[in-house]
Amino acid sequence: MIYLDYNATTPTDPAVTNAMLPFLRGQYGNPNSSHAMGRPVREAIESARTSVARLINAKPDEISFTSGGTEASNWAIKGAAFADRRRGDHMITISVEHPATLGPMQWLEKFGISHTIVGVDQHGRVDPAQIETAVQDNTILISLMHAQNEVGTLEPVAEVGAIARSRGILFHVDAAQSLGKVPVDVEAMNADLLSIAGHKLYAPKGIGALYIRSGVEIDKFIHGAGQEHGRRGGTENAAMSVGLGKAAELAIEYLSKGSHSELRDYFWQQMQATLGNRVVLNGHPTERLPSTLNVSFPGHVGGNLLAKLDGVCASTGAACHSGDAKPSRVLTAMGIDRERAIGAIRFSVGRPTTREEIDAVVKMLTQAVIAT
Ligand SMILES: Cc1ncc(COP(=O)(O)O)c(C=O)c1O
């Protein structure tokens, strides 16, 4: 099997599993108990919080653990909407956002909170000037993904953050895809809220975090006892939080060693060398995640091609059943025509990916494209 779907999810790093194991075995104390069983668990959770904060240049008490990226974004968006209804009732986001952002905004319409969806260019990137044009007197939140999950395009978060800051509007960044792949710095981005998803970062599924800048007030999302600095009720998931902390430490080390785009670039060069103009790149040519290679094979159905790559795990943005291929919503929003969109496959490389795996996939792909 060759796994090239690291944007969908990553394996849990063995060092992360090892860090978690004591909290699934003997260390079962409640972190809120002040006795000898509780205290070490509390210390481990707080140490994990510090590691997550370091990864994004935040302070530990600005980090709240969540069940994942989706919960983090739901909390940021709904929490901002309900924090103070007098502040306003309008939000802004972009057309290629993840459902974790678009879903809560659509739901908020039931409460009279509207949103503007700003379009993107052919690379999937928003023009900050268009966000500025969409700002109204009643705008309370701008939500922008750092990296687009299907095509990997990096959005101009720092520029949009500066606009939000100058207008006194809260700025939420969805960093689910970018964290651990490119530097993420809440100060450089002017982010007030930032979503983290553990399973894209070599931690397990079911853990994430929300960064909430000191002084920023958003409503609670999960009501209960006073856990997570009184912000999120429910006894803490110690093992998972410790896992995310370890994953953050590994990410800091990994990022200190460079940008890691060599394999993605090698993959693209090899594809071009064998397929020439039978393959086209989707997403921004340079402002793109070092993991992501979304390519189209015009005249082909991406899902059908993928089915011919024996043992290869990648993904198609298109939901396709033979004869009924639907183009990806994201590629369509980028203005990519139907034929090219239907022919798209997203390959995403990860830390364990090797050149040998890429060579094998390019060989299979070339045969599949040329034979059909
Ligand atoms: C950009 C983006 N935001 C949010 C999410 C949701 O994260 P989670 O799966 O942790 O809920 C994902 C996961 O696919 C994503 O790619």
Question: Can you describe this structure?
Answer:
With 372 residues, the chain is of the alpha/beta class. The protein has 2 domains: 14-255, Type I PLP-dependent aspartate aminotransferase-like (Major domain) (Aspartate Aminotransferase, domain 2); 259-371, Alpha-Beta Complex (Aspartate Aminotransferase, domain 1). 38% of the residues lie in helices and 15% in strands. It is built from 14 helices and 14 strands. It has helices at residues 14-20, 39-55, 69-83, 99-108, 128-134, 157-167, 186-189, 227-230, 238-255, 262-275, 302-308, 329-333, 338-342, 355-371; strands at 2-3, 63-66, 90-94, 114-118, 139-145, 170-174, 193-197, 208-212, 280-282, 292-296, 312-313, 320-321, 324-325, 344-348. A 7-stranded mixed β-sheet has the order 2-8-7-6-5-3-4, with helices on both faces. The chain has a 3-stranded antiparallel β-sheet with strand order 9-10-14. The chain has a two-stranded parallel ribbon with strand order 1-11. Residues 68-70, 98, 100, 145, 149, 174, 176-177, 197, 199, 208 line the site of pyridoxal-5'-phosphate.
Which key terms come to mind for this protein?
binds pyridoxal-5'-phosphate, Aspartate Aminotransferase, domain 1, 372 residues, 2 domains, seven-stranded mixed sheet, 14 strands, Aspartate Aminotransferase, domain 2, single chain, three-stranded antiparallel sheet, alpha/beta
